[in-house]
């Protein structure tokens, strides 16, 4: 794998998993399968989880998805970034987000707070091209295009990917997350996919607002989510069907899709059946 940087360094397909949910052995296997990036979900308070996976692999990119601006100090994060980039040149990218109003007592204007955080990253030398923003709405998407490499939207559909590309323009990096369940029975797949969508995301204002922006109604969002909503947010079927649903984001304007595997004891067992592009 090369050490190229920029929007094409991620490959077309990556993996999204909780920052404590990927072992070094799994990371090595993910790299062997040809995936370009491992996105570490959740809100780690340091970049230590990224270092662990970088040490376990030889070339794959590692990115946070996300580093939360409310529980981290941007100057400290910039110093950690510099250390990682010295030890693993070009391989780590910082994904930054504002988290959720419901989970953060100090929550203030998300846009203004993100601008302030980015200002500190700039002052401490963290390159614009080595960070991405968690972005859903138009203002944050445009900020992602202006102040970072691009956007890493979560819990979205290809329709949102198309919308995000329109908002950001052609030059910005776009890497949506997509949940999958490798299961051909729709009822079983929804039983697996609905709980991690419903709790917490269908109770968080920013995600609900985004879904409504896409045309979903209260009836779609209430009571754990309608079948239609769950089917749109959690791709399911056989490997070919799931791959086609994942790649719909690429057709809609994404550069890269971060795949989150649900319902598997070991995500690499599923990834072996779903080759990276």
From TrEMBL:
Gene Ontology molecular function, alphabetical: oxidoreductase activity, acting on paired donors, with incorporation or reduction of molecular oxygen
Domain Luciferase-like: 25-122
UniProt signal peptide: none
Keyword Protein biosynthesis: no
Superkingdom assignment: Bacteria
Assigned keywords, A-Z: Oxidoreductase
Residues spanning the membrane: none
Gene3D superfamilies in UniProt: Luciferase-like domain (3.20.20.30)
Name listed for the protein in its UniProt record: LLM class F420-dependent oxidoreductase
